[in-house]
Amino acid sequence: QVQLVESGGGLVQAGGSLLLSCAASGSILSINVMGWYRQAPGKQRELVATITSGGATEYAASVKGRFTISKNAKSMLYLQMSSLKPEDTSVYFCNALVVGRGADYNYWGQGTQVTVSS
After folding, report:
1. Cα dihedral angle (28, 51, 5, 103), rounded to 10 degrees?
2. Residue 5, φ and ψ in degrees, nearest 5
3. 26-58 pLDDT per residue, tens
4. 10-13 and 112-117 beta bridge pairing
5. d(C-alpha 29, C-alpha 2), whole Å
6. Host H or E run for residue 82
């Protein structure tokens, strides 16, 4: 089992920056990939960025060059968001993927609201 708790959301003006954090606990050594997803009202949850246990990163095209995903050795995951746009307004979720024998397990945080005003 993995528990995830996000923090750092809030209200920011367009062009501003925010840092999201996610604290992972539990069976953290079993995590293969961590990531950030977001979901706006009436829309499907979408991938924002992922980072593997080896440090390889991937980004959605819409955030590439503006957002940076990172993690530290103490099971913290971060998303540095810069040059924010109103369309970045969403609930942001932290995710942990554990690849098991014959089954993958996805764990989610409770989400943190990010609102970007124009």
Report:
1. -60
2. -130, 120
3. 988 889 999 999 999 999 999 999 999 999 999
4. parallel
5. 10
6. none
